[in-house]
Structures are given as C-alpha cells and as structure tokens.
Amino acid sequence: QKEVEQDPGPLSVPEGAIVSLNCTYSNSAFQYFMWYRQYSRKGPELLMYTYSSGNKEDGRFTAQVDKSSKYISLFIRDSQPSDSATYLCAMSANAGGTSYGKLTFGQGTILTVHP
Amino acid sequence: EAGVTQSPTHLIKTRGQQATLRCSPISGHTSVYWYQQALGLGLQFLLWYDEGEERNRGNFPPRFSGRQFPNYSSELNVNALELEDSALYLCASSPGQGSSYEQYFGPGTRLTVT
C-alpha cells in the first residue's frame, strides 16, 4: 500500500465549476500537507501548505486537512481554463524521523477545465 | 526574485555513462532537495542537502550521489546509467532545515538514457 493515495482522474469540469481534489494517507507521522500544481513539462509549483488539521484559504483555493480520517482536500472555486494542470498532494513529517525533510507525493490528479 | 534554476534542460546519455545535473537554489535558501519523476512512478525523493551535509536519502542505489557547495548550489551525479534512469530530475530548495515542508521546485532536467 502506498503511503499517499490520490485519484489520478482525469477530471474534466466546465469553467466556473467548483473542483474537489482529495488524498488519503496512512503515515500518522505526517504533520505538514501541501498542494502543488504542475503544468505540462514544468516543475511543480507550491500552491499552499497546512500544518496539522484545519482549513486554509488563499484566493480561489481552500485546503482542508482531517488528520483523524487521514484525508486532505483542495477546493478550487470558479475554476478557469488556466487551472488545467496536474495537481499533486504532498506530505512531510516533523524532525526526528527517517521521513524528515522529504516530501511524499500522491500520484497527481489531471484536471481539465473547459470553456 | 529568481527561482530555482537547473541545468542542463535536457541530457542524453548512453547506458553505462555518468550524468551530472546542477541546481542553484533560491537566494537565501540553504536546503536543496533532489527528486526523480519517472513516467508512471510519480515524484520520488532522492537526496536532501543542508549546509553542505547530506541530511536524508531516499531508496535509491549508491550510484545516485550528490553534493552541496559552499554557495548552496548542488550537483546530482548518476553513475553507471541504466535505461530506467530516464526521467525528469527535479531540484527544490527551502529556507532551511526547519522549513523543509516549504519546498520550491525548479523546471527540471530531462535525462534520457539510450
């Protein structure tokens, strides 16, 4: 079983829709939760990071973390064609463990927003 | 502010050769990370350097090695190249050990092994 599971999609939505992207994980040591966006043939771009459980909002993006369920989400409101990309969740642990410093990624969800 | 830069953009090598990839972090960042993004395998952690020291290593054979220079730039070396080493190699940087969750990626070096 992979430490981080992410539905690869692909996900296709009309412009203006609310998009929900999700990841589940199994490692209880994960404390930081990140979302990256990766356009074709480019490096991943950090969208947001969250520490422990809770919500975080940045413009049209909202990240949610539920540590009790080991489940994280990214919501995109008023989606635009420019949001079409692969979205990757990533997680990391606190200092002291063998996982410290490394990000563990999901497989990525391919999102297409059509006009 | 300039982002993470990597060179070369593309690299073509023959099986058995050695490859050297380079990375310059964001100004002020002391930590550099290397990842491999192979088709179908997702992003896999390779190495982490901070203040010139190797801090952590992923599940890769010893022929994957690297170093960090006093100016915090880094080099990834892959010896005895195999066909399955063909992938996009991504470098990331963060402000320091305590911010290892906040990694900013470069555009990558695409390595092709024939």
Describe the structure concisely for a colleague:
The complex is a heterodimer of chains A (115) and B (114). Chain A is an all-beta fold and 115 residues long.
Q: How does this structure look, described?
A:
The complex is a heterodimer of chains A (115) and B (114). Chain A has no helices and 11 strands. Chain A is mostly beta strands. The mean pLDDT of chain A is 93. Chain B is an all-beta fold and 114 residues long. Helix content of chain B is 0%, strand content 53%. Chain B has strands spanning 5-7, 10-13, 19-24, 31-38, 42-50, 53-57, 64-68, 74-78, 87-94, 104-105, 109-113. In chain B, the strands form 2 sheets. In chain B, strands 2, 4, 5, 6, 9, 10 and 11 form a 7-stranded mixed beta sheet that branches. A 4-stranded antiparallel beta sheet of chain B has the order 1-3-8-7, with no helix packed on it. Chain B is globular, with a radius of gyration of 13 Å. Classes of the chains: A mainly beta (115), B mainly beta (114). At the A-B interface, strand 4, strand 5, strand 9 and strand 10 of A face strand 4, strand 5 and strand 10 of B.
